[in-house]
Design brief:
With about 180 residues, the chain is mainly alpha-helical. The protein contains 9 helices and no strands.
Length: about 180
């Protein structure tokens, strides 16, 4: 198995260093995900840009967490499910919702469940969701802009999920309490 370096500010390529510093400011530490991504300044910059843009997107905060966890579960990314479960709980998403997302089960909140179903369909069908899926998402109270924002969130998670699959990114201690194993 190829080993990928966990870069820090000293070992990272010069062009990755500002992005590591930015990620450290945003998260409070350099995650092992960012440390691995630093091998490619462009990947790290792209991921951080998407994270920032998705954070500013029109989706409500709880729906953003639904997108992050659902896409990561669908892609079988143990690292991202643990990380986003931790972040969701810290942001006030209730534990029943986080557990249901981790288990791909329906959510008690109908609108959030519509986001879960739409995101799961988006990932499972590689973007080829049915018109009915889009209409159901819109009927739940979301907008066409929200549809596009889910695409942004799925794109962000695709970068991190695939990186973690290839690099076998070790779990940060901050995420260990929410460790998740793909079924």
């Amino acid at each position: 198995m190829p080993e990928f370096t966990l870069h820090d500010e000293a070992s990272a390529p010069e062009d990755s260093r500002p992005h590591l510093e930015s990620a450290k400011r945003r998260m409070g530490f350099i995650t092992t995900l960012n440390a691995v991504m630093a091998e490619s300044p462009e990947l790290l910059a792209g991921y951080n840009a998407l994270a920032e843009l998705f954070g500013k997107s029109s989706l409500p905060v709880r729906a953003k967490h639904v997108v992050w966890i659902t896409a990561s579960v669908q892609n079988g990314c143990e690292y991202c499910v643990a990380a986003h479960s931790t972040l969701a709980l810290k942001s006030g998403v209730d534990s029943d919702t986080v557990t249901a997302l981790r288990e791909s089960k329906p959510l008690a909140d109908d609108k959030l469940d519509a986001a879960r179903r739409f995101t799961a369909s988006m990932v499972a069908n590689q973007g080829w969701v049915s018109d009915e899926d889009v209409e159901e998402f819109l009927a739940a109270g979301y907008t066409k802009r929200n549809v596009m924002d889910v695409i942004l969130g799925v794109g962000m998670k695709t970068l991190s999920n695939y990186t973690n699959h290839i690099a076998h990114t070790p779990l940060d201690p901050a995420w260990e309490q929410q460790e998740w194993k793909r079924p």
